[in-house]
């Protein structure tokens, strides 16, 4: 984590909530104690550094009030506002635990150190409420978490540089199932995170419509190449993935009819519904048939396989046949003939 970011974080977490307040000189002392100000700089230089950091924090957080009636100025989180980073009470502790378990687990190991320092500083806050809810609340992930793939941390900086300066990148990439990596050249357009894996969207150099998607964890080496001969001035990576990459986002909304075993699937019928448009078609012989609108996606197919012992796909027929084929393939893995 850069020194500038560490100063920013320290200033933000040091500003107290109403009615307490802290002065710019006190903030300077806290930065000094944390070793975040250069000992070689003179007093004026240190104060200028501190004030720039304070100004950046205030600009980003409208809840911070400034008392400029006298010098040095003092700062506080306005009355009625929660602290932007310090957990206080159940909602903050709950959010912190969920973020730590879900978001942190998605990141490659090389990117976790910055996040670790943030959580470490937040956990040092010990109000009555935070102590209570750390003991009386815990979060468990609903799925088995896969370990994040390892990605060279330098790749992110190189890709950022390429995006900012409109440079191509040259890299060696090993496709899934390939025995050896091969050399590639790409005009990068952006990154997206799917599950706990990062992916790069890029153009074949010299084109404006020939897109490729690369998994960052399959890149062995990467370096900056020449300036891009062609690139897109505007590119919304979310829109591109939603419209062109079914594997990651899914296809069109489709209506499905499912037959669900009542006892084990009650939560799917009455509690955690598949969609807001879900409706019950009939009850019979311990089963309930429902109709729901879901996205045509690999994720939904995998979900159906997970619950194959309690859910039967009635329609659409193409989806039903795909699940049957997957089940047959699964039985064959166990040397069971269907």
Automatic annotation (TrEMBL):
Query: What Pfam families does its record include?
Result: WCX, WYL
Which PROSITE patterns does the UniProt record give?
WYL (PS52050)
Name the domain of life. Bacteria
Ranges for domain WCX come to 255-329
What InterPro entries does this protein map onto?
CBASS_pafABC_assoc_protein, WCX_dom, WYL_dom
- WYL domain boundaries: 156-223
Q: PANTHER family recorded for this chain?
A: PROTEIN PAFC, PTHR34580
What protein does this entry describe?
A: Uncharacterized protein
What is the phylogenetic placement of the source species in the record?
A: Bacteria, Pseudomonadati, Pseudomonadota, Gammaproteobacteria, Vibrionales
């Amino acid at each position: 984590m850069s020194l500038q970011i560490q100063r920013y974080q320290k200033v933000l977490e040091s500003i107290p909530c109403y009615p307490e307040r802290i002065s710019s000189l006190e903030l300077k002392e806290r930065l000094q104690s944390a070793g975040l100000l250069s000992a070689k700089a003179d007093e004026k230089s240190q104060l200028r550094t501190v004030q720039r950091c304070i100004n950046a924090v205030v600009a980003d957080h409208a809840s911070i009030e400034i008392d400029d009636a006298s010098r040095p100025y003092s700062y506080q989180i306005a009355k009625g506002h929660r602290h932007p980073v310090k957990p206080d009470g159940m909602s903050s502790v709950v959010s912190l635990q969920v973020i730590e378990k879900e978001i942190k687990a998605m990141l490659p190991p090389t990117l976790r150190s910055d996040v670790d320092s943030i959580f470490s500083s937040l956990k040092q806050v010990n109000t009555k409420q935070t102590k209570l809810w750390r003991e009386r609340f815990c979060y468990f992930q609903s799925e088995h978490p896969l370990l994040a793939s390892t990605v060279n941390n330098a790749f992110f900086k190189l890709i950022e540089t390429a995006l900012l300066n409109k440079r191509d990148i040259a890299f060696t990439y090993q496709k899934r199932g390939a025995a050896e990596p091969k050399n590639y050249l790409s005009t990068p357009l952006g990154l997206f995170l799917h599950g706990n894996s990062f992916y790069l969207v890029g153009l074949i150099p010299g084109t404006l419509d020939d897109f490729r998607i690369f998994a960052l964890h399959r890149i062995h080496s990467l370096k900056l190449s020449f300036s891009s001969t062609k690139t897109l001035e505007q590119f919304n990576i979310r829109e591109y993935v939603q419209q062109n990459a079914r594997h990651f986002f899914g296809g069109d909304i489709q209506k499905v009819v499912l037959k669900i075993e009542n006892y084990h699937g009650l939560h799917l019928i009455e509690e955690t519904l598949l969609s807001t448009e879900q409706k019950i078609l009939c009850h019979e012989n311990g089963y309930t048939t429902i109709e729901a609108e879901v996205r045509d996606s690999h994720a939904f197919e995998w979900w159906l396989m997970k619950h194959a012992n309690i859910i039967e796909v009635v329609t659409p027929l193409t989806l039903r046949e795909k699940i049957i084929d997957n089940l047959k393939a699964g039985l064959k893995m166990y040397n069971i003939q269907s």
